[in-house]
Amino acid sequence: MLRYKRHVQSFTEAEIAEKLKVAETLREEGKRVYEIARVLGVTDTTYYNWLKRAEKPMREGDELRRLRRENAQLKRAVKSLANLAGAAQS
């Protein structure tokens, strides 16, 4: 039996927000959910999950976790740039 690996594409929060704006415009034009999902390049289920996530208010703990993760990424980027600058001066 052949098994195919499914390509899983992940979108950033900003990309999802942009796609939901496009979806809102399409919904106002009277498009159906499957048509909107096709335009966005996602499945109906993904579109519904995005809508549910967008409507749910973010909890304080979620925001704190997101900020800590972002802070850690920024620290790694600064450290990496500092290492590159130090190597360039040598």
Shape: elongated
Number of helices: 4
- The low-pLDDT segments are none
The count of β-strands is 0
How would a textbook summarize the main sheet? none
The helix/strand class is mainly alpha
Helix content: over 70%
Q: In percent terms, what proportion of residues is strand?
A: under 5%
| Helix and strand element order | HHHH
Please give the radius of gyration in angstroms: 20 Å
Mean pLDDT: 87
Distance between the termini: 57 Å
In short:
73% of the residues lie in helices and 0% in strands. By secondary structure, the protein is mainly alpha-helical.
Account of the protein in words:
The protein is an all-alpha fold. The protein contains 4 helices and no strands. The longest helix is centred in the C-terminal third of the chain and has 30 residues, at 60-89.
Topology:
Elements lengths: L12 H16 L4 H8 L3 H12 L4 H30 L1
Helix pairs in contact: 1-2
Summary keywords:
mainly alpha, 90 residues
